[in-house]
Amino acid sequence: MTTIQLPSPGAIPDTIEGRPASDNYLTHTRGILSWIFTLDHKRIGVMYMWSVLGAFLLGGTFALLLRTELLTPGPTITASADTYNQWFTLHGAIMVFLVIIPSIPAALGNIILPIMLGAKDVAFPRLNLFSYYLWVTGAVLCVVSLAMGGFDTGWTFYTPYSTTTTAGGVIPVLTAAFVLGFSSIFTGLNFIVTVHKLRPPGMTWFRMPLFLWAIYATAIIQVLATPVLGITLLLLIVERTVNIGIFNPSMGGDPVLYQHFFWFYSHPAVYIMILPAMGIISEIIAINSHRAIFGYRLIAFSSIAIAFFSFIVWGHHMFTSGQSALMNTLFSAISFSVAIPSAVKVFNWIATLYKGSVSLTTPMWYALSFLFLFTIGGLTGLHLATLSTDVHLHDTYFVVAHFHYVMMGSALIGMIGGLHHWWPKIFGRMYDERLGTIACWIIFIGFNVTFFTQFMLGSQGMPRRYYDYQPEFQVYHVISTIGSYIMAVGFTLTAISLFGSFFNGKKAPANPWGGRSLEWQCASPPPFDNFAKAPRVGDCYDFSVVHWDPKLGGYRVDESNDPEVNPAAQGTKAAH
Amino acid sequence: MSQTIANTHTTHADQAHGHDDHAHGHDPHVAHHFDSMAQQFDSAKLGIWLFLATEILFFGGLFVAYAILRMRNPEVFSYASHYLDTIMGGINTCVLILSSLTMALAVRCAQTNRRGGLIVCLVLTFMGAIGFLVIKYFEYTHKFHDNLVWGSSFYVPPHDAEGHAEAMALKTAPVAATAIVVKDPTLFAIPDLAAKPAVDVSAVKSASVGPSGMARANGTPAPEQAAAPAPGKLEEAHPGTHLEDTKLPPNTHLFFAIYYCMTGLHGIHVVAGMGIIAWLTWRAVRGDFSSKNFTAVDTGGLYWHIVDLIWIFLFPLFYLIH
Hints:
The complex is a heterodimer.
Chain A: E1 15-16, E2 19-20, H1 32-36, H2 41-69, H3 81-117, H4 125-147, H5 161-164, H6 170-197, H7 210-242, H8 255-289, H9 296-309, H10 325-353, H11 362-385, H12 387-393, H13 397-427, H14 433-459, H15 474-504, E3 546-549, E4 554-557, H16 567-575
Antiparallel strand pairs in A: 1-2, 3-4
Helix pairs in contact in A: 2-3, 2-4, 2-15, 3-6, 3-7, 3-8, 3-13, 4-6, 6-7, 7-8, 7-9, 8-9, 8-10, 8-11, 8-13, 9-10, 10-11, 11-13, 11-14, 13-14, 14-15
Chain B: H1 2-21, H2 37-72, H3 74-80, H4 86-111, H5 115-145, H6 162-179, H7 201-206, H8 211-217, H9 224-227, H10 231-234, H11 253-286, H12 295-319
Helix pairs in contact in B: 2-3, 2-11, 2-12, 4-5, 4-12, 5-6, 5-11, 6-8, 11-12
């Protein structure tokens, strides 16, 4: 009754599930048009992935320009402070709106979620393709805004500066963020409906892998928070074009209202970035410890709890904006409580590692980096949630370091880890693991050199977004810049190891890491319709049935002792 | 538990098997990734409800902005609300509620295989949307004519260039005749606004609307008394002459800013709804819908209802403040 036809013993099988092994989603149809108009979630995910990685390269280039400029006080590579302002704005806007928010849900989530769930596609494939083209439109509008004179508002577009600056590209970039918001909403909407309605029989809520719980929680935030950003940006566009005065104090409006609106979205957006990474880490740690995840339900519920808390803490970005003391106190207290579900996850991951038989694969190194960096990022968040220390640290490099530890050290490292985890599944090729591991270490070291230094800079009073600084800060800036170069080397090596897999990588087995969830039970790369027959859903964290098979070069799931599969085994069990 | 899972699994596998063999009649309306029409319908329903939730939040930002502006400037809202035409707003509310009814009937017709009724109901709904937008057009035109606009241009007199004033007066005369009752032409003249900043006083003095303005444009000097009407008459002044009102609270433009933002965004949604209804009508004429396949009518209808519902909140919030 086993419906999953495992590859028969002996190297690479000629046929998988009755089809030629070479027939997968990448080769099923050919030609550029078959990609442009594809409705296949995997292809849309792959297009997202390349686009996001391209945007990451661009955002990273701006980061390097910023760090290089800050090597010396005063002019270093550009004599214009305004150019520097445009660089950091572009770096922030690209990284937030074009890279981190879509990276895990839209790229990896699109590829993996339906397969992991046992579905043939997402609920609305056309909407899925539409949201990809909305992303492309947003990216094009960013380029248009550059051509129209750029923008120097910071990625937060605070009023009244954003409504009065003479930079020509503000309206295109606001439109870009608006469009990207809808891309994100439609992705989230698609995933919620998919998780609710397309689960095959047997895939109950509490059999879902934790990555799906994380994506589900993320999707809820995407759907409920992003519309508010949409209307805020629309109001800002109207304010800038026809001067309605709603955010303008000289006309009876209120600039702090803009900040409330903006952070009502943008704080939950922080969890749109981090939650899916936490889902990836749950998968990587459980699979590479070859041990059932510790506290499955707690991790699942903590994702939902984080999604809930994310909506009621936005005011902690505005402690110095003149909010009432009562509001500040409340927002501070609620912000502390976000630490609880986050810590629940970290403790559960560590408990999973404990007495597990850990395989130090490349994705696992990224997961361990995540644990370390997320802990630092999370704990320094508490300094900023504390009212008195925040007044000192507000808008300093301490904040920059904190959110880079969370956004980059956690969300992006999680994304790169997930990329390594599912790369063999997506492209059917193994990358050079040794090179990948070395690259991970270099990124980890470079990251800490860059950003730990900024904690010190910030606590000594170096404000963020400044082109110039006091000479006594230079030593920290130089260390931080060197760290960013180290990271650039690390990412280059990562790219070499991943792209190298296309040229000299060996064919990936269906299950290279020993996973139990459904995506590891279909071929690598998956067939175009994921599952010719409905898959059998087992306990996705029961690794006792996963065995290494040297003939396959990977793992194989042997459920012959499972009474659900083999009633005879149940008889034996009953006899005991 | 385990037995149940195994059983349901068998069913599913059998379905999938049948699907592959095309042994059973395959419903062409069911997309390949759904197992059944019911699953597809449920997904579409959940999808549209989620989308409606995003719409509520999208407008929610504007409702919050409204609440905050009104809380800070209660006098502006109770004052400026008088300038809105309650009759027209009321008619529009009725038009939209009726179009919601015809939309609900359209869904019912689709469910009961009445193609003719479906087409009639969809066309009636479309007419309702047109009716709403036409009335809204007259309201907006009237407001623009009286310079009831957003931002700093609110304090700029309606027609500061003589030739322009004439053209505007002539162009909008029929509208004004139907929408307002002109009691005394002299009341349309603009008084001395030296106290108001950002106003070109000389332009204000020379410009006027209506018969006297036209007379001046024709070469006749404007009547002197028109420039300074008696204070007693000001209180009876027509809403169009807001600049003469001595009780004009500061920042009155904020009311109109949020009014145009909210009703404008709502209007865009009405236009989008018209597109959806037109598409549904086209498909209904083609004969796509039946009791087995009415998902699109149902979801389109839900969208139309939310557009109506938002208006039902907008109407009292703007028109019925006093």
